[in-house]
Design a protein that fits this description.
By secondary structure, this protein is α/β, with parallel strands linked by helices. It folds into 2 domains: 2-113 and 397-405, no CATH class; 187-390, no CATH class. The chain has helices at residues 2-60, 191-198, 236-239; strands spanning 71-73, 77-87, 90-99, 102-114, 120-124, 130-131, 135-136, 140-142, 146-149, 153-154, 158-160, 164-166, 174-175, 178-180, 202-205, 209-213, 219-222, 231-233, 244-248, 252-258, 261-267, 272-280, 294-299, 303-305, 318-326, 331-333, 341-355, 360-362, 368-378, 392-405. Strands 5, 8, 11, 14, 15, 19, 21, 23, 25, 27, 28 and 29 form a 12-stranded mixed sheet that branches. Strands 18-17-16-20-22-24-26 form a 7-stranded mixed sheet. The longest helix has 59 residues, at 2-60. The radius of gyration is 32 Å and the shape is elongated. The chain starts with a helix and ends in an 8-residue tail after the last strand.
């Protein structure tokens, strides 16, 4: 009996020793894993702080340069920030966070958009109202106050710097989205189109230029020095290697059917004259076949619908397929108050301008007295695709946010 009891006691001792050892091992392993998870979280928090600091600093000042030294964070953590420019309108911010033996990386890609992303943009509304029956089918921004009367419809996001004015106060504009207090200033010059037109593009200085587009892709160019003689180019690339034509200190006259992608710049003292309808070889609203034609018109001064026989048929009106940018002027019908009734002015693209200018006059009740009735539609391709050399927005948008873990596979084993 005594011997049996002794053996039982010894057996229980062995069992308890094994259990205690296992419990100690488990406790040690749990603590070790806790420590590793803590280190991992410290590295993650560290790099998260680093990349948020970088993005915040960049939004405040795009010229911000990160320190070449590591930043310290929460005693023992460090992070390093790099800033690179993959292109003139894109930037990459990278933060690497370190804690103990661990490293974590965050990479943020930002892109500066183009003014062509706006269906309608203006600095000065000039007292012009959006009224019942008016529809804006894309993003709209004004640095002025947006004036509405009645129930206009805005199918894209609307932003204003100075708010909304309703007259009468019972007006009920319909917004897909609206925010005030937002500013997006015009650039001080048309630098992009000037640079591309002067280097690699086609450039004309101190002379007026007439450009006619044809459905087969051909382009005819005439200048005063050539008289009535036109130079015929087989396509856009034979006229300009980078897709930009620049007219400096001269008027630019345009008409026809464009087959291709081109940007026409008119800088300095000259104005742009749209001498007839300007359309694409493929309808920009078509899904099949999809349109691959695109025209950008970038001007320092006004863009005018010429008062001529091509543009005064009220049964036909005028159609413009293009994104139109006027840095110090705006889109306007030439002699808008005295020209004949000219039908509808249909723009499929976008209009970005300093001044909202009139294209016609109306009798009380809405009948056209002179010029055009407006019919503006947004080319939705311009939300993600811009004409080459088109003016860039000041602000950048985050396009991607990627986090990469550099922990070894065996770290948590």
């Amino acid at each position: 009996m005594g011997r049996t009891s002794l053996m039982m006691v010894m057996g229980f001792n062995v069992i308890f020793m094994v259990m205690g050892f296992n419990l100690s091992t488990i406790t040690t392993m749990a603590y070790d894993k806790y420590t590793k998870y803590y280190e991992m979280e410290q590295a993650v928090y560290c790099v998260g702080s680093g990349i948020n600091i970088a993005v915040g600093a960049f939004y405040k000042d795009t010229g911000w340069i990160p320190s070449t030294s590591d930043y310290t964070f929460m005693g023992g953590s460090t992070f390093h920030i790099d800033k690179t420019w993959p292109g003139p309108d894109s930037i990459t911010l990278m933060a690497r966070g370190y804690y103990a033996t661990l490293a974590e990386t965050s990479i943020v890609g930002l892109k500066r958009g183009k003014f062509s992303e706006y269906a309608i943009y203006s600095v000065n509304e000039n007292g012009i109202y959006w009224i019942t029956g008016d529809t804006c089918r894309g993003p709209l921004h004004t640095e002025d106050q947006l004036n509405v009367s009645g129930n206009p419809v805005f199918l894209g996001k609307v932003t204003t710097k100075l708010g909304l004015y309703k007259n009468p106060s019972s007006s009920k504009p319909q917004f897909a989205g609206y925010k005030s207090g937002i500013s997006q200033a015009l650039p001080s010059s048309c630098a992009e189109v000037i640079s591309l037109g002067s280097s690699g593009g086609q450039s004309y200085s101190n002379k007026n230029v007439w450009i006619d587009f044809y459905p087969d892709g051909k382009i005819a160019v005439r200048t005063p020095t050539s008289g009535s003689t036109r130079t015929i180019y087989d396509n856009v690339s034979s006229l300009t290697s980078n897709g930009v034509v620049l007219v400096k200190n001269g008027d630019l006259h345009i008409k026809g059917t464009l087959n291709g992608r081109i940007t026409l710049g008119c800088t300095g003292t000259g104005k742009v004259y749209l001498d007839s309808s300007i359309v694409y070889a493929t309808d920009p609203k078509s899904i099949s076949p999809r349109c691959d034609d695109m025209l950008g018109i970038v001007a320092d001064k006004d863009i005018l619908i010429t008062d001529n026989s091509n543009n005064t048929n009220p049964a036909v009106g005028v159609t413009i397929n293009a994104s139109l940018f006027s840095r110090t002027g705006g889109l306007q019908a030439e002699n808008y108050a005295s020209r004949d009734v000219s039908g509808k002015l249909k723009v499929v693209g976008g209009i970005q301008q300093k001044n909202r200018n009139p294209v016609g006059t109306f009798y009380i009740g809405g009948a056209i007295a002179s010029g055009f009735q407006k019919d503006y539609d947004f080319d939705k391709r311009l939300q993600t695709d811009a004409p080459v050399g088109y003016p860039a927005l000041q602000k950048f948008t985050v396009m991607s946010w990627y986090e990469r873990t550099n922990f070894p596979d065996s770290y948590f084993e």
